[in-house]
Amino acid sequence: MFPDLTRDDVFRIETRRLWLRWPTAKDRDAILKLAGDRAVAEMLARVPHPLPAPVVDAFLLQARAENATGAGLTLALARRSAPASLIGVVAIHPGSDGTPELGYWLGQPYWGAGLMREAVRALCNAFFAYAGGTDLASSARIVNPASRRVLEACGFVHTGTGTKPFPARGADLPVDLFHLDRARWRACAAEAVLTEAA
């Protein structure tokens, strides 16, 4: 799904405030603390609470393996002022229906500053511009309006509601479903350029 460009662990995307880089073993403690926070974990399908260290170790190994093969792309978020300190994760993986799916989380201390919107926009740009993506799906728990706002701000269109498996929550849960295609991404990217130039 992703080209050779992304398959080296020196690959990174820089935004105004963030570095998006491959996750490393040094991110383990930050993931345990930030993703293990109940307020974060409860919105995620595969992150149990409490979060055991072996689950994080397996996640890191899997993320790096998928990045290396191009099967998906999982990137750690870090502030440019502290590039070694993970504050969240953003990823695109093959979806169950064949459409790639975007997922993400951000540590609670960093909520409300627009950082996830910045990260999602950057990864979407990489997906459509460098990986030749045509369609991207995402979803957010209905009880998570902040995640919905991130997707809408990045051009995703709400396509309805449904249920998705949340194995870490032990049930299928209701979600808002979203979609972004290449044409809408282009239009949103052009609009962002015009806004920044104004």
UniProtKB/TrEMBL annotation:
Annotated Gene3D superfamilies: 3.40.630.30
Domain N-acetyltransferase as annotated: residue spans: 17-157
Transmembrane regions: none
InterPro entries per the UniProt record, alphabetical: Acyl_CoA_acyltransferase, GNAT_dom, N-acetyltransferase
The protein, known as: GNAT family N-acetyltransferase
Organism expressing this protein natively: Methylobacterium brachiatum
